[in-house]
Amino acid sequence: MPFFNIIDVVMSELEDKYADIRPYNDDEVTASLSRLMNDNTFIDVIAKYNLPRFLSSVPFIARPLVRSQLRKKWGKVSTVEDVQNEVAQYLDKLVKRTTSKVTFSGLDQLDANQAYLFISNHRDIVLDPALVNWGLYQHKMKTVRIAIGDNLLQIPYITELMRLNKSFIVKRSAKAPKEMLKALTQLSSYIYDSVVGGNSIWIAQKEGRAKDGFDQTDPALLKMLQLNGRKQKKEFGDYIKELKIVPVSISYQYEPCAIAKAKELYHKQHHGEYVKSAGEDIASIVEGFSTAKGHVHLAFGQPIESKCDSAEELAKTIDRQIVDSFYLHPGNYIAGGCKEAVIDSPDTATFEQRLACVPEELKPLVLAMYAKPFHRKAEVNTNSCEH
């Protein structure tokens, strides 16, 4: 490679040091949409879920139909904001179709002009951050950049869709110590630069969904955030305050993918390690989108201003806000054995009907995931730096 070409490459990397993990910029949207339009696998998935079976099963008919509709729909989409507006329209339909209502609390206490690092409990792969964005969008606040593990990006069209929708990549596949440290340091720096630069971030409180209903922040996540602070030679507590951390508690009346989660837990209990089958995460995403969720509530907490001097202390502070503000639905009270709660008969009947559809060997696990938030409220009110 000629010398000046090498210089150009080096300068380009310096200017865009997050190119391999960041979401797409405005000038990359059109090319990404074009790649999606030319991806037969993506087109076939759209056909499967949007066309009658007799049409979707015949690719030479279905593909031109889908592409024609997408050209009409995406014809004027050329910026990240355009994409967000498209996603908002889709979410509006999804909320009306699969929930009884989605409610929010705490958003009116946040500064619409301030960027935050939202750390939430994690129950659904895509819906959790999507509904956080739905709340922000409705309150005329900027939507978040979304942390997503590279384990979900094994299919090219999924990568395109996620990066179009303001998702940045967490390199979970890095295993060698040096490789892991490099990836985590880059991630830590990206999150800090985003927040300081006026772009809010969403990240789950721990790796993976809480399949047993146990919402608990992993201190390792918070130590990752501090890697960039250490590079800046800042104390943990001082650096964390700059990130404007806001805990978010997400509560679904009907647990997304409850039976699938229980199957995984059951397998681990009886057979040890559980290895996901190919496409299992995608199936979970589709199930999360398509099945009934009842009432969903998102409680946005207060920015953590108190000085937490360790990751463990900060984790307990985040947990206290998430658990305290978790909205308990009738199923949580029923599964938790609460005798004092006043529960309408229709709510009891609906919960029992849903439980009747669960295989007998999985019922204790499903009941436990509903009961855990109820019992957790009594467990977390000590040892936080805000208590």
TrEMBL record:
PANTHER family: PHOSPHOLIPID_GLYCEROL ACYLTRANSFERASE DOMAIN-CONTAINING PROTEIN (PTHR30068:SF3), URONATE ISOMERASE (PTHR30068). It comes from marine sediment metagenome. It holds the Pfam family Acyltransferase. GO terms for molecular function: acyltransferase activity. InterPro entries: Plipid/glycerol_acylTrfase. GO terms for biological process: D-galacturonate catabolic process; D-glucuronate catabolic process. This is Phospholipid/glycerol acyltransferase domain-containing protein. Residues 101-187 form the Phospholipid/glycerol acyltransferase domain.
